[in-house]
Amino acid sequence: MNTKSKELAKNHRHVDKVLRESEDKYQTIFETTGTATIIIEEDTTISRANTTFEKLSGYSKKEIEGKKSWADFVAEKGTLEKMKEYHALRRVSPDDAPRNYEFKFVDKKGVFKYVLATVAVIPGTKKSIGSFLDITNLKHTEEAIYKNEQRLRNMIEYSLTGISIVQDDQVIFQNPEQERLFGPLPRKFILADLEIIHTDDLEKVKHLYQNITSGKFQPLDLDFRFYPSGPEGLRPDMKWVYCRVTCTEYQGKEAMLINTMDLTQAKELERLLMIQDKMSSLGRVAAGIAHEIRNPLSGINVYLNTLQKIYKRGQDIKKSEEIIRQIQSA
Asked: Which of 219, 247, 262 marks a domain boundary?
């Protein structure tokens, strides 16, 4: 073998070594990437699959490679049609096809899983590489959070207690009950709108508002009366409410959470009961007075009847004088 042949053989061995090393690195990365990864041929066949994809799909590599299409793992028909469009577009214009999307994955046992797919064409080929991240637990968590938020929203929307959030003296959220009490948005914070507060409650409302503005509201309670703004400046019947102010955070800024109960009917009933109690007491006093008056009047009436009989009979005048003294005493 001449020198040139030896050199060529040496170069060939070096190239083989580099290729083997490159293949080993590629295989290591492919297997240890942490996500389910496959190599997809132009006809949608899966030519290679890593161990993580085996676990995700429930199939072995022998059952997948060269036998399965990625389309076999798409659960929803509508989604499958879109993904086929992406697959074709990716081989014509790779930049125009979405790289990331979610879909419902079905495994060997027919179990549905939510996955996040990342797919891209391998440069210089018609093949693409796809990686799939199982986000089922994340989806379930999101669904649970959504349901909890929906339940909380329903509790707030249909609560018999008025609920609102205040920032910078402006009401930025309120439920229907709070709107019924104080009117629609936009509007000022009720405790800052002193013009509609009942004069007898003005000082304690001012005191509470000063505590709020100084940061002392963890929590603060107050009952007060106010006049809702009516149409054309009219003032309908006064309302009496119980209000609790607590500190909270809304959209990253400090805010106040206001809970309000309408006490108007309760206070009116309380007033009527108080009047009824006074009338009852007055009735008892009047009955006592009547009793105290009735007794001596009955005696007087007896004496008068006796005096009348004496007068008609013309009896002794001294007896008449005695009866008159008894009457005067009574």
From this structure: 262
Cα Rg of the chain (Å, integer): 47
Whole-structure pTM value: 0.57
222 and 290 belong to one structural domain: no
Q: Phi and psi of 244, rounded to 5°?
A: -120, 130
Please check whether residues 164 and 240 belong to one and the same domain: yes
Note the pLDDT of residue 232: 47
Instruction: List the single range of 62-66, 212-216, 294-298 with lowest mean pLDDT.
Output: 212-216
Range of the domain at 46: 25-135
